[in-house]
Task: structure prediction
Amino acid sequence: MGFGFFYLFLCVAAAYGPSWMIASTWQITIIAGILLTPLFRTGKHSGAARHSIPVSQLAISIVIIAGVVMVQYKKGALSEVKENYLALFYIIIAAFSYPLGNRKMMAVVPDSMGTIERIFGMTLCSLPFWLILMIIGVLNNQLPSPEQIRQTFIVALSSGVIATILFFKATEMVKADMHQLAIIESSQAGEVVFTLLLGILLFKDQLPSPTA
Result:
């Protein structure tokens, strides 16, 4: 869930627009993490109380929703409405999958398990999912081109390794405090700027309009 559905639907959504548009819409994951809070308990035993939604962080997230709506509105004026809503649908699935997988792992694994072990476990358990997708892809399409492999390597190194380790370590440090966890998850908003700059430099993405 945390790696499989997250990466799958985010990659599918990427086919419908430039990276900056996907990254800005991806900020829905901040609200998703907040809304998922009641699913988890304050302790590992079944009798522990459930966490409550941090209302203050949720109120601030209204700004995020407003930004997403503006980006989608502008994007919708430039492309097919159907494709626009499909991309939004895929991103919403990915946006809920990522914090759900991360928080669930923190809730079930022993406290002695560190960030690297947790990431390794999630990666190992998601391998069958990726192998199935790989087989389907090879049977229905040709092998990836050298350019696709290069881009995949860059994304895997920057997002899959560096960013994931840093982000998971930060969430692990505050996992007992849902308010602090929501703040850490909201730091993902900074990725929009980096995605815009790197997308233009590395992948020749188109510049967003002044309104977007």
In short: The chain has a mean pLDDT of 77.
